[in-house]
């Protein structure tokens, strides 16, 4: 990560925006629910969490994010009867939810609105395909599916740093365990190393348990001016930073080394400058990162400065990123087991971090999280975008 510029320090929104309510529907193959049903479930849970009884009167604007919706922002406005007010839609592939959150936070920080709703949702299971219909550009005969593309990074990392499938297995086992503790997660099944190794290969070295579960789902957050937060609740969570950074298509970037994600490093530099983070390993108490594949989570440990480049396997072996470790990651199971409805994922991560910071995460609660910072991270596209949000109570 390069040193933050003076411009990045000036444009921060630290402590100007508070989160006073969060909600999340059940993630899964929700054949019995329409997108509207899931939006309503998530939003009304957030309303109740914030103590809002008349949302049509209290909410001034809605920022929604979806990748697969064909109906645009009025799918959300119709579902929630949010009329005669601005309702906007954001789409930034897997970073969509974080980007919608960013728009909502900026609307508050700018002084344009006092209270807004952010909703991320998607219902990919109704499209009739088992996975995302993503076709990467054919460059130098590179694979054209997400698993094939990310697998190139795994092979390169293994060769350079001596990691193996056993290291990826520990990440998968961790996230499956954490998912069993999250009531609204999709997959609630513990796995063993034997289960991992017996599972079918998707694109070597990725097997079934390395790959995130694509699901239907929606998540929501109520944002307000920080000075209004106590009118909603006493334990509001403050937005310390939010950053979206774009980067070159790594398949066409001659400087890409297949060992890290440039947008993650850039977004981390920007977000850390905004939040005043100098030592992420010490200052961040819990993190939700984009584990579309287990290797992606491993690379993100290093890209975010949680450990030195090439050292992730040692920290994985030490249990540093497990629930009782020094810096727990993907406490609700992550994309792997909570599920990945693309537009909802970033907001779902914020939902989890708010619960952790407020001490409301039940059996997966991280000890001492309330006194530290919480980070969420999404990458999207090839990946060519990254979104990071940092939250805290102090």
Helices and strands in order, then pairings?
Elements: H1 6-10, E1 17-24, H2 35-50, H3 55-58, E2 61-65, H4 74-80, E3 87-90, H5 96-109, E4 115-122, H6 146-161, H7 165-180, H8 193-198, E5 201-203, E6 206-207, E7 217-225, E8 237-246, H9 262-275, H10 280-283, E9 284-288, H11 294-303, H12 312-317, H13 334-337, H14 345-357, E10 373-380, E11 385-392
Helix pairs in contact: 2-4, 5-14, 7-11
Strand order within the widest sheet? Answer: 3-2-4-7-1-8-11-10-9
- Unreliable parts: 134-141
Largest sheet: 9 strands, mixed
Give the proportion of residues in helices.
Answer: 25-40%
**In the CATH hierarchy, what is the class of the domain at 17-124 and 214-224?**
Alpha Beta
End-to-end C-alpha gap: 26 Å
Global structural class: alpha/beta
What is the number of helical segments per DSSP (H or I, 4+ residues)? 14
CATH H-level superfamily title of the domain at 17-124 and 214-224: Thiolase/Chalcone synthase
CATH topology of the domain at 17-124 and 214-224: Peroxisomal Thiolase, Chain A, domain 1
The assigned CATH architecture of the domain at 17-124 and 214-224 is 3-Layer(aba) Sandwich
Q: What is the approximate shape?
A: globular
The total of beta strands comes to 11
Q: How do the helices and strands follow one another from N- to C-terminus?
A: HEHHEHEHEHHHEEEEHHEHHHHEE
- Give the strand content: 15-25%
The whole-angstrom Rg is 19 Å
């Amino acid at each position: 990560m390069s040193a933050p510029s003076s411009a990045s320090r000036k444009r921060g929104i630290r402590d100007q925006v508070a989160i006073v309510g969060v909600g999340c529907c059940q993630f899964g193959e929700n054949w019995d629910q329409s997108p509207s049903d899931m939006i309503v479930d998530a939003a009304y849970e957030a309303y109740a969490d914030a103590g809002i009884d008349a949302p049509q009167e209290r909410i001034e604007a809605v920022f929604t994010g979806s990748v697969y919706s064909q109906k645009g922002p009025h799918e959300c406005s119709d579902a929630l009867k949010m009329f005669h007010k601005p309702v906007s839609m954001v789409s930034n592939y897997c970073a969509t939810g974080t980007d919608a959150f960013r728009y909502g936070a900026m609307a508050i920080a700018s002084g344009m609105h006092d209270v807004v709703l952010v909703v991320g949702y998607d219902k990919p299971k109704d499209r009739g395909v088992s996975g995302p219909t993503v076709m990467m550009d054919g460059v130098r005969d590179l694979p054209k599916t997400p698993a094939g593309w990310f697998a190139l990074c795994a092979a390169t990392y293994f060769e350079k740093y001596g990691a193996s499938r056993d290291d990826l297995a520990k990440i998968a086992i961790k996230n499956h365990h954490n998912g069993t503790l999250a009531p609204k997660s999709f997959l609630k099944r513990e796995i063993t190393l034997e289960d991992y190794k017996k599972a079918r290969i998707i694109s070597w070295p990725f097997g079934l348990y390395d790959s995130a579960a694509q699901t239907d789902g929606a998540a929501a957050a109520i944002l307000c001016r920080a000075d209004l937060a106590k009118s909603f609740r006493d334990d509001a969570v403050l937005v310390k930073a939010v950053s979206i950074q774009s980067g070159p298509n790594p398949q066409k970037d001659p400087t890409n080394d297949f060992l890290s994600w440039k947008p993650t490093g850039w977004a981390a530099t920007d977000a850390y400058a905004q939040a005043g983070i100098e030592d992420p390993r010490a200052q961040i108490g819990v993190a939700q990162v984009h584990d579309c594949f287990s290797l992606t989570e491993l690379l993100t440990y290093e890209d975010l400065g949680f450990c030195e480049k090439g050292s992730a396997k040692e920290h994985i072996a030490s249990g540093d990123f497990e629930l009782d470790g020094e810096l727990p990651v993907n406490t609700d199971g992550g994309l792997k087991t909570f599920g990945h409805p693309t537009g909802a994922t970033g907001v779902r991560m914020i939902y989890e971090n708010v619960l952790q910071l407020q001490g409301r995460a039940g059996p997966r609660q991280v000890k001492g999280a309330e006194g530290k910072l919480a980070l969420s991270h999404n990458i999207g596209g090839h990946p060519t975008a990254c979104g990071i949000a940092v939250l805290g109570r102090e």
